Amino acid sequence: MKKTSVVLTFFAAAALIGCGSTSDYTPPADASGEQIFSTACSECHKPLKGDVAMILSEKVANKDALKNKIQNGSMRMPAFKNIQGDAADRLADYLLANSEVK
Fold first, then answer.
1. Separation between Cα atoms, residue 78 and residue 76, nearest integer Å
2. With 35 labelled, which of 16, 52, 80, 85 sits at a CA distance of 20 to 30 A?
3. What does the pLDDT look like over 36-68, one tens digit per residue?
4. Would you place residue 22 in the very low, low, confident or very high pLDDT band (cuts 50, 70, 90)?
5. What CATH code is carried by the domain that includes residue 35?
6. Structural domain count, the chain
7. Where is the Cytochrome c domain (predicted)?
8. Measured at the alpha carbon of residue 78, what is the angle toward residues 76 and 82, in degrees to the nearest 5?
9. Cβ atoms of residues 75 and 18 within 8 Å
């Protein structure tokens, strides 16, 4: 029983690794949305195929929701507080233009 508790605790902790974390990545002023995605996002979000960066849920398939998620993170995604203004717009535009919505 004790071994089961230890294993479950380990897996619960592993699932929450990104919770509450923040990335200090700051994109260059002239970085394109694709460059920002490649540098900041593709470590976890591997492009699905040549022209599809990721699959977005309908809930986040709009510019404001994407920028909010990028800047504030979520349960498993770190917040990217330094992706602001034009850089956040370029990244959101890239994701909307190059993702599937389901």
1. 7
2. 16
3. 999 999 999 998 888 899 999 999 999 999 999
4. confident
5. 1.10.760.10
6. 1
7. 28-99
8. 160
9. yes
Closest CA to 26 of 77, 70, 75, 92: 70
Residues spanned by the domain of 76: 2-101
pTM of the predicted model as reported, rounded to 2 decimal places: 0.79
Q: Are 54 and 38 in contact (CB under 8 A)?
A: no
Helices (H), 16-101: 33-36, 63-72, 85-97
Helix, coil or strand: residue 81: coil
Please report the pLDDT score of residue 5 as a whole number: 53
DSSP bridge partners of 101: 56
CA distance 62 to 88: 13
Residue 84: closest CA among 31, 11, 42: 31
Residue identified by tokens 């977005």 is 56
